[in-house]
Amino acid sequence: MKLVVFGASGATGEHVCRLANEAGWMVHAFVRSQAAASQLDPAYVHSIGDPTQPKDVALALVGADAAAVSPGISAAKSITLRHASGTIKPRLPIR
User: Fold this and answer.
1) Rounded CA separation 47/4 (Å)
2) Which residues does 50 contact at the CB level (< 8 Å), separation at least 6?
3) Please, which residues have CB within 8 angstroms of residue 16's CB and are 6 or more apart in sequence?
4) What residues make up the domain containing 12?
5) What angle do CA 33, 52, 9 make, to 5 degrees?
6) Which residues in 38-87 belong to E strands, given as ranges?
7) Which of 3, 38, 67, 69 is deepest in the core (most CB within 10 A)?
8) Considering only 15-19, 24-28, 50-54, which range has the smallest mean pLDDT?
C-alpha cells in the first residue's frame, strides 16, 4: 500500500512516515526542498514540490492508496482549502 505524506519532514510528518513504514506501507514523502529530502529516511520514496500547486500534488498522488497531510504552517500564514471539485473554501487564519 502506498501512503503519500505531505509535510513529511516536519515533526508530525516524520512520525506518520515512521509509523506507516513500520506498518508495512510504502512511504512516499512529499517535501518542499532538496534540503528537507536529504534528511528523510532513505527507505522512503520522495518527491519535491509545492503543496499549494495542484499539478505537484496530483503527480505525488499517482498510484497512492492514501494520503496524510501535515503541512508546517506558521502563525503568520493562512491556508486556503480546496475541495476536489475545485470549490474554494474560505481562508482559515492559523492561530
Assistant:
1) 10
2) 32, 56
3) 5, 8, 68, 70
4) 2-93
5) 35
6) 45-48, 66-69, 78-82
7) 3
8) 50-54
Residue carrying the nine cell digits 512529499 = 30
Residues 6 or more apart whose CB falls under 8 angstroms from that of 21 comprise 27, 41, 43, 44
**Residue 37 to residues 8, 10, 82, 87, Cα–Cα distance (Å):** 9, 11, 26, 31
Domain count, the chain: 1
pLDDT in tens, 43-82: 999 999 998 899 999 999 999 999 999 876 655 455 555 5
Helices (H), the chain: 11-22, 34-37, 54-61
Task: For residue 2, give the C-alpha cell.
Answer: 502506498
Place of cell 475545485: 86
Which CATH number characterizes residue 47's domain? Answer: 3.40.50.720
